[in-house]
Specification:
Aspartate Aminotransferase, domain 1, Aspartate Aminotransferase, domain 2, 2 domains, 13 helices, globular
Length: 388
């Protein structure tokens, strides 16, 4: 049956290939240790679950939820943002609930791009950033992220002809998959570039809390008037609520309104009880988040130390829940082959760097979603694989 031509433009799904490789390993009797997906294994706070449980008993929460019914959640998000970053935002015009931040980043191009317009995307980067641009009929200009530049793009290297046709730039720091953090000075440079060239600046910010030293800046610390920017937040990482599909956007009122129009065509909001639980999360303070961050810090330290012990030298990440490891020879140009062979022979699942873009080739990403003992066991298995 013929399908729309736009689907042919979407990247082949490397992660679907890896899922097939996992199933083959299971069929072969391998005991899997899955470090490929950034899906938290940590439990959701009982206070959040209790609030959702209370909502389930309230029939008033069982119907469709339109925008005005999300007011309490939007106010909680605005209050959280002002408390964390010291910048006030309007919950009525500058905050929008989302069914996960991926919904926002994938749908925003429909509100911003005309067919043929360019989006400037990080390479490597999160796959939905590219997918949304393609579905909107846009073109992609990849901004390579290299270790020698601290995994930050260099705006002066973007061709002038591309800049003239660009309508959107997507950044995301702390960065998945490289774990890099961008300083505020970089965001100021990005805002100035986008203001000069009339480009919408998108900042995907899922790892706002998962920082081990200092803190990560918000885009609005560089653009406090929200002149050209929008920022996306999720509950999947800080609150381990990935399966609940809850996120939100804060940003320029026109951009929020445009995304809201797209959203009104695609969906209503998610169940109100989830928003009620998320509002409790935002009001709960930093104590539980600090415990989550410390858990990932301990896992990071154990995993990196174990890799060093088997001769795989990797940098210690300063943020996120990942380790971005440069592949040893002879795998430097075949991250997909490395990951398929690794899971087939050892049962260890990792994410190939090529799945995040051309500049990701030569790397592999490990997600710290297992306890320290399991992470060490994974490295022990990899030692035999690497040294055969």
């Amino acid at each position: 049956m013929p399908l729309a031509r736009r689907l042919a433009l979407l990247q082949s799904n490397v992660f679907a290939e890896m899922d097939h490789a996992k199933q083959l390993a299971l069929s072969d009797g391998k005991a899997l240790i899955d470090l490929s997906l950034g899906s938290s294994d940590l439990p959701v706070s009982p206070r959040i679950l209790e609030e959702i449980g209370r909502s389930l008993q309230d029939p008033a929460t069982h119907g469709y939820l339109l925008f005005h019914g999300t007011r309490a959640f939007r106010e909680a998000a605005a209050a959280w943002y002002e408390q964390k970053f010291g910048i006030a935002v309007d919950p009525e015009t500058e905050v929008l609930p989302l069914i996960g931040s991926q919904e926002g980043t994938a749908h925003l191009p429909l509100a911003v791009l005309n067919p043929g317009d360019y989006a400037l995307l990080l390479d490597p980067g999160y796959p939905s950033h590219a997918g949304g641009v393609i579905l909107a009929g846009g073109q992609i200009h990849a901004m390579p992220l290299l270790a020698e530049h601290n995994f930050l793009p260099r705006f002066e290297e973007i061709p002038a002809a591309i800049v003239q046709q660009a309508r959107m730039m997507v950044l995301s720091y702390p960065h998945n998959p490289t774990t890099a953090i961008a300083p505020l000075s970089f965001f100021k440079e990005a805002v100035a570039f986008c203001q000069t060239h009339n480009i919408v600046l998108v900042h995907d910010f899922p790892y706002v809390d998962l920082v081990f030293e200092d803190s990560a800046p918000s885009i609005f610390q560089a653009d406090p008037q929200r002149s050209c920017s929008i920022e996306f937040f999720t509950f999947s990482k800080s609150y381990s609520m990935g399966g609940f599909r809850i996120g939100y956007a804060i940003g320029n009122a026109e951009l929020i309104q445009g995304l809201r129009k797209v959203k009104s065509i695609v969906d209503f909001n998610q169940y109100k009880g989830i928003l009620n639980g998320a509002a409790i999360a935002l009001k709960s303070g930093q104590t539980e988040i600090a415990q989550i961050v410390e858990t990932y810090r301990q896992r990071r330290d154990e995993f990196v130390a174990a890799l060093h012990q088997i001769g795989w030298s990797v940098p210690t990440p300063t943020a996120t829940m990942y380790v971005w490891a440069k592949l040893p020879e002879p795998w430097r140009s075949d991250s997909i082959g490395f990951c398929k062979a690794l899971v087939a022979q050892t049962g260890i699942c990792a994410a190939p760097g090529a799945g995040f873009g051309l500049a990701g080739e030569g790397y592999v990403r490990f997600a710290l979603v297992q306890d320290p003992a399991t992470l060490r066991a994974a490295v022990d298995r990899m030692a035999g694989f690497l040294h055969t």
